[in-house]
Request: fold
Amino acid sequence: MVKLLPVLAFLLVLPGPVIAGEKELTVENVRRAVEGGLRIVQKGARNYPENRNCFSCHHQTLPMLAMREASDAGLVIDKDLFIEQGLFSRESFEDRLDSVAKGKSVGGRSLTAAYLLWVFELGEKAKDEFSDAFVSYILHQQKEDGHWDVQTNRPPSEESRIHTTFLATYYTEYFARGEDIAKKVEAAGNKARSWLFASTPHSQEDHVGRYKALLTLGGTPAGVNDARQAILKGQRDDGGWSQLPGMESDAYATGLTLHALAAGRAGEARSPKLERAITRALNYLLRTQEKDGSWFVKSRSKPIQKLFDNGDPHGKDQFISMAATGWATAALARAGIPREEDPDAANPQGKRPD
Reply:
């Protein structure tokens, strides 16, 4: 376990705003922002099963990640709702486990399967026949060169083969059990690592996925540092990151990136340059949060389902804005609220250790 360095406490009590219009960066202001984000993601997660019976990353996994990070930072969450989201996610697939295990019946394919296993990890669920089915499903979907593909191009979360391959590798290895499946997972992981470590990022989702892969799947220290420096180089003057080089900063890309950087800043990764980048990103998220506690991000995905009103802010942009609010809330809780110890250091998935 790694203790938070004094530099972080200093950065969180800066004497005043750096950019006109932003809130003073204090722990109390960060707490208020996290509490505001929690209200949005908890409301959205609570409403979702009343409107849809299918699992989603934007209304289950990311709200649960935000709730977990907030809870670990000492904030109060709706624990019953947290448990209910895990149960809802499981119930979404209970009637087709046999088909899932054969590599069928999962909309969104490997990315959906990995996000579902992430829900089980966040909820600290034991390995069982349910996780077995999804590990088997993901193994069926791997491409010959070692990567996992997305089913449809629904940016930003469903456009990155790199992030999808990282998640697929991470969660098949995390949930693998039994000698036979362990051998298959090891072989798949070796192929995936070769592909991941040689991959070239284009989107921010790519950059973060490759950084997570190098950090947690055995990348060299030099490789991890190069990936981190590439991410830091991409930070905009306003303190945020953008989904693509030609776009403006937004809360989705910034929350995604800040969460990974903060979770991976253990040991030698902590540096004045990194801490300055984290401070600037915290300022960006505080400055861009809406009064209701949400963050707005405009969708760039073509709708494939009929729009329904889940009671979330931002109308037709509610799903990407919910995902952005989940990432932003989780990132603020992880990066902006000091803890006596950081049990999840160098683990960008936000889980608690066993």
Summary: Residues 78 and 275 are 31 Å apart (CA to CA). The domain at 6-336 is CATH 1.50.10.20 (Glycosyltransferase). The chain has one domain: 6-336. The two ends are 13 Å apart (CA to CA).
